[in-house]
Each structure stands twice: as structure tokens, then as C-alpha cells.
Amino acid sequence: MRKPLYFDFRAKIVILILTMLLVAFVTSNIIVYSILGILTLYLILQGYVRSALKVGFIALIAILIKYISSGKGLTVLMPDMFLFIITRIMLMLMAAHPLMGMPPGEAVAVFNKMHVPDTFALPVTFMLRFLPTVKNEFSSVFAALHLRGLLSPRHPLRAIEYIIVPVMIRATRISEELAASAEARGIAFPGEHTSRREIVFRRHDFWLCFIGIFATIGMLVWEGRAIT
Amino acid sequence: MIELLDVSYAYLDDSVYDVKQVDLTIGTGEFVVLTGKSGCGKTTITRIINGLAAKFYEGRLTGRVLVDSEDLNNSPLWKIGREIGSIFQDPRSQFFASLTEDELAFGCENYGIDRLLIEERIKNAVREINGENLIGRDIYPMSSGEKQKIAIASIYAVNPGIYVFDEPSANLDMASVIKLRDLMGVLKKSGATIVVAEHRLYYLTGLADRFIFMEDGHLIKEFSPKQIEEMKIEEKERMGLRTGNLQVCTGQLPYILTHDKPSVQIDSLTFSYGKNEIFSGLSLKAYSGDVIALIGPNGVGKSTLGQILCGLLKEISGSVSYNRNKVTSKKRRKKAYYVMQNTDCQLFGESVREELALNQTSQNEQEIEEVLRRYGLWEYRERHPASLSGGQKQRLTLAVADIIDTDILILDEPTSGLDGENMRIISEHLKQLSRKGKTLFVVTHDYEFAVATCNRALQLLKGCCHMDFNINKNEKLLLSCMQEREK
Predict the structure, then answer these.
(1) Cα(B439)–Cα(B265) distance, rounded to whole angstroms?
(2) Is A178 touching B (CB cutoff 8 A)?
(3) pLDDT beyond 50 at B267
(4) How far apart are CA B49 and CA B469, in angstroms?
(5) How far apart are CA A104 and CA A129, in angstroms?
(6) Mean pLDDT throughout A59-68?
(7) A135: which chain B residues are within 8 Å (Cβ-Cβ)?
(8) Is there a single domain that holds both residue A67 and residue A113?
(9) Could you tell me if A114 lies within 8 Å of chain B, comparing CB atoms?
(10) Between 20 and 30 A from A41 (CA), which of A4, A198, B176, B456?
(11) Residue-wise over A69-78: b if at least 16 C-beta within 10 A, else e?
(12) Chain A residues 181-200 within an 8 A CB cutoff of chain B
């Protein structure tokens, strides 16, 4: 297989912002599916084949359910609104994924280079590391609920409460420990940070932004026409 | 040199002082261990030294803290971090990168060290910790021992003169503890000053210069390594400490075992995650009253076996029988209960009392009161489970298991991170459950606890050669099995 492309942090941020923009404005299904296709390609180009397949698969199921139920959703458990949210969350996840896998030192160094103030840069760096951890906590809580026999489809709200509270408690604890560790390791050092990886905006980063912006404008125009 | 002069500390929103009027001097190159029951303030002392107490947790600090005659109060955290490296209890929540080299570089990058120099420092750190096999690997799937090793190496790369450890062995198996000890030895040899807050003392007796016993925020007494090793059992129990010498651990065995009908029978059980075979052809008979220690290095499938026994996972082939009836994984969920390692993930009630009432089988108020009293939790009945201490949470998860009342009970590392006192309480409760005729499986890395609690051990090894033996009079074998490194 070809060596995966490595995009610059800034290019990835551009893609994330563009996706956020599109998700906020686009209502037409066809356009949403094309974004899904493009983002899958974007992930595969960078070597995230498995994640691309996983996320793409979930989105596909949501779309399928939508069509099978002819746009009404499956009963109260899976209303159309829910499917709508799932597809959009998947889009956001796909655009954010390459950012999350990034080494933190690089993120800190880039923010430093771009003169982004610490009050913004530190929380973002922190989130990059934090999200994948919380994912693990969810599965543990699920297993525990299962064993206690507290997962019942008859009380979906109660089940959600049972899941959210322990996950929140764990998340708070982990985030505190992570933050303490980062502070003790000089993340707030006011001088210039370096990175073991070279930080350069290469030609393919430029092309990525260019194509991304172009495609976004195209889709927004398309969306405008579809509505009128 | 570290000097604490009349230091007191209280956490934010806490009226009670956690550390009270402490005077402590630690010389350059000295190796000092702080020990005592949970909540005695030893972790707080480490946080006072690395500056987190005042500047991160933002509590009230009085008195003066001097490091090399400089008042810590005047230094920001990043500046302290360059002189004082900190290694925390949970290796899972102290790494940031997904690739080993990126993680090792993190501290150096923060301090703006030149790229080429960083590479050199990484290489050097890897060599010192013997971690060549960790290079180029993803950190997430690594064992806790490997993660801890990387945490230490990434601090080492920054090259501080002082190292502060907060319960570094709490999440490690015994083979990893030996490696941790060796690493600390390397740091000590390089002339670093080392401060460790710890419950497990046995691995530190050969390294530490002195042990400081704390109680209720005060420094009570100092011990030499020799005194810790030779401490009498009664004295240890009175102080709530763990043993300083594994060789002297013994168990009492008042087990009532009936060996006619096995309560659990496993026949040639095979399990794999995808292509990765965990075990094959595992067979075992267990009887009512058995308390079986599941031992073996991290990642060998101890927790997996536990999850199969309680029905969370399904075997690939082979069978499991309870009370001489074959049971499918779905049915096992009703017959066996699994207490997970992470207590926070399995407590859902809004109060301790509600936690026990959640399982519909027992809405009986009297029974709940009886169980809460038995587990020493009655006075905390209105508290939120999340606000309890580690030992109390562990007792609560056991109380839940007790009230669910299955014949078979599996516990995953019930004593990790517990002090001697809480460890002995958990041990007593398990023995009570055994006397009720339950069959217990305990995944554990805690030798002191295993010897005191279990009558049998099942050692899992990669592949199919397992060893099943009685612990009574075989303590030496158990110890060597638990310390065995991955092959």
C-alpha cells in the first residue's frame, strides 16, 4: 500500500472548520452523503482505513434505517431526528479524527508558532488526548450495567442516567489527573516550544485546503439551489 | 535539598487540614518513602513538594517549602517541573501522545529543547530504562507496567534532580513492580533525590534510606528499612500497613470444603480475540467454598477468564458447568457476578443505600441495613458513592455482590491501591463469603492478600500450560509464580 499522507496540523484544522460549517448549513441528504464520501477518502488517504470503515459503516446503517422506514425512523427508540443527529455527528468525528491522533507536542508547538494564546491552545491540546480515554470508560460502564441487570429497554431514560453519571465522574477524575501531569511537565512554559516532528506547511497541505474550500463553496451553492 | 517548614495544607472547599504542621528535610540524593493508611496525607506531601497542591489544586498552604533554598511559592509550575519530575498513580491518565517517542519527547518539547537534542535525550532515556522494545509502539494497548515505564522515561528525558512518585505500584503486577524497583535503583544511582508515597513496602526496603510513617496529617515516626522488614504482624496491623517482607506472609485456612460435587466445572475452554488466542484447552474443577487466586502476568487472560465465567464473554469452544449443569454465557450472567476492577464504573445509585436497593431482588430494608452494617457502611448510607474513599467504594461493590447473592463470584483486583487495613478487611469479607458456600475467583497481583485469602491458585500462562495448586504450605511456589516475568 502507498505510504499514508501526513497533513499539517493547520490544514487539518481548516478541514474541521469547513466540515463544521457544512454540517451547520446543509440539510439536503444527497449533499450530506457526498460529504460522507469525501471525508472517508480523506481518512483513507491518511492511513486511517479502519476508522474510516467503522464510522462509514455506522453512518450507512443510519441512512439505511432512514430509507427502510421511509424517513420516519424506527418507533420511539430511533426517531428520524436521532438518525439525523447520528449522521452529522459521524461527519464531525471523521473530520476531527486525524487531529485526535496527533502527538500533543506538535499541537502545542504549532499553536505556539501561530501565536495562539495559551488560554485557547491548552484546552484544545488537552481535548485531543481526553476524548479517546472517555470512550473506554463508556464500555466499562456498559458492562457493569449489564451484569447488574440494570439495562432495560423499558426505562431508556433511567439507563441513560446510569451511564452518564459514572462516566462523568470518571471523566472529571481523568481530566484532573491528565491536567496535573501536563502542568507538572511544563505545558505552560511561556517560552518557545519545539517539536520532534518538523512543522512545515507543504504543498499537499496547500492543495488539501484549496480543494476543501472549493468543495465547501460548491456544496453551499448546491444547497442553496436545492432549497429554492 | 527539600525542606518543609511548619507546612499545613487543606484542599479547596475543605475545612479540615490534610497535612498538619509538618517539618521535613530530605537531603540531596536521599531516597525517602512516605507511608500510612489511606487518607493519612502522604499523597498530599508529594503534591506539596511538586507544587501541585498550591498551584494546581489551589488549596490553602501555610508554612514554607524550600527546594535548594529557593521558596517554591515564587516559582510557576512549569519551572518546578524542570527540577522536580512527578510520576503518578495511574499510568493510564498521565500520557498524552499515542506513540512512545512522541510521549518521551513531550516534556523536552515543552521546554523548547532543540529537535536534535530531543532525539538524543529520547535515545538515552530508552537505554536507561531498557525500553528498546517499546520504541515505535502505540501506547494505548500497552500494559500498565509498560505505560509506567514510559512515564518514568519521559520524566527522565527532562532530567530533573528530584523525582516524586505517588503510589507508583498500585496498578502493576509483581513482575512489573520488580522492574519499577530496578528503575528506581537506576535513578538513585544517578544521584537523584527520590520521594515515594506508597502502601506496598516490600519492594522499597532494599532502596530506601528511611520510611516515614504518617497518620492523620502528621509525621509520626521514622523507620529504617531493616525495622520495616522485621516489623511484627500486630504492629503492622495496628498501623494499617502492608508488609515489608513478603517471605513472612502467611494465611490461616479455616475453609470448609466439600469435595464431592464441583460447583464449577470448566472443560477444555478456548477463547481468542480475533486471531489472538488467549487460552485453549483450559479445564478446572472448583468446589463450594473455594477461593481461587487467578494469577499470571498482565495480558495473559485472567480478566478474560473472569468475564467468560460471568457470561460477559462467550467461549469459542469448550464448556462451563455450574452445579453440574452446562450453562450458556447468557445464563451465566444470572448465576455468577463479576466485580470489576474500576469501582467508579459500577456504582450507579444516588446514595450508598440506594446502590443496594437498585437490584430489585432485594427491596427488603432490613436486609439492606444488615448488609451495610456488616460492611461498615451504615454510617455512610446517605452519602453519594462517588464521595467515598477507595476502600469504602471497594467494600460497597462487595456489598452489592453480596446482596445479588450468586453462588459464583469473580473479583478483579479487589485490593489494588488499598492500604494494609482495607486490604485485610476485604480479605475477611471474602472469607465470610466463602464460608457461606460460595465459589470465589479472585484476579490478583497482590501476594500478601492472596496468601491471606485464597486456598488455591490457578496460574495462567501464554498458551495452554496452566498450573493449579493448593496455596497452603506452597506459599513459596505462589510467590515465585506471581513474580514470574512474561516469557
Answers:
(1) 11
(2) yes
(3) yes
(4) 46
(5) 8
(6) 80
(7) none
(8) no
(9) no
(10) A198
(11) eeeebeeeeb
(12) 181-198
**Letter for the amino acid at A132?**
P
| Residue of A157, A196, A197, A198 to mutate when probing chain B, most B C-beta within 10 A | A196
Please check whether residue B381 is in contact with residue B390, taking contact to mean a CB–CB distance below 8 angstroms.
no
- If asked whether residues A89 and A1 sit together in one domain, one would say yes
When comparing pLDDT for B275 and A211, which is higher?
A: A211
Q: Which residues of B touch A177 (CB under 8 A)?
A: 88, 90, 93-94
Number of domains in chain A: 2
Whether the Cβ atoms of residue A31 and residue A23 lie closer than 8 Å to each other: no
Residues 6+ apart with CB under 8 A from B138: B98, B99
Instruction: Give me the residue from B80, B97, B386 closest to A105, CB to CB.
Output: B97
Whether chain B has a CB inside 8 Å of the CB on A49: the answer is no
Calculate mean pLDDT across residues B25-33.
96
Inform me whether the pLDDT recorded for B301 exceeds 50.
yes
One domain, residues A13 and A63 = yes
* pLDDT for residue B206 is more than 70: yes
Measured distance CA(A129)–CA(A175) in Å, rounded = 10
Q: Say how many residues make up chain A.
A: 228
Local confidence band at B60 (pLDDT 50, 70, 90 cut-offs): very high
Does the pLDDT at position B337 exceed 90?
Answer: yes
Q: Same domain, yes or no, for A110 and A79? A: no
Segment A112-134, tens digit of pLDDT:
778 887 778 777 777 777 776 77
Q: Is A105 on the interface with B (CB under 8 A)?
A: yes
Q: Picking from A159-173, B215-229, B335-349, B447-461, which range would have the lowest pLDDT averaged per residue?
A: A159-173
Supply B95's cell numbers: 500520557
C-alpha grid cell, residue B115: 529537535
**A67 and A175 part of one domain:** no
Same domain, A74 and A149: no
A 138-167: CB under 8 A from B: 140-141, 143-150, 162, 165-166
pLDDT band at B171 (very low <50, low <70, confident <90, very high): confident
- Asked if residue A118 and residue A209 are part of one domain, the reply reads no
pLDDT digits (tens, 9 = 90+) for B91-106: 888 888 878 888 999 9
Backbone angles phi, psi at B186, to 5 degrees: -60, -45
Based on the fold, state whether residues A5 and A87 are members of the same structural domain.
Answer: yes
Q: Do B348 and A166 lie within an 8 Å CB cutoff?
A: yes
Host domain of residue A81:
1-101+198-228
Average pLDDT of chain B to the nearest whole number: 90
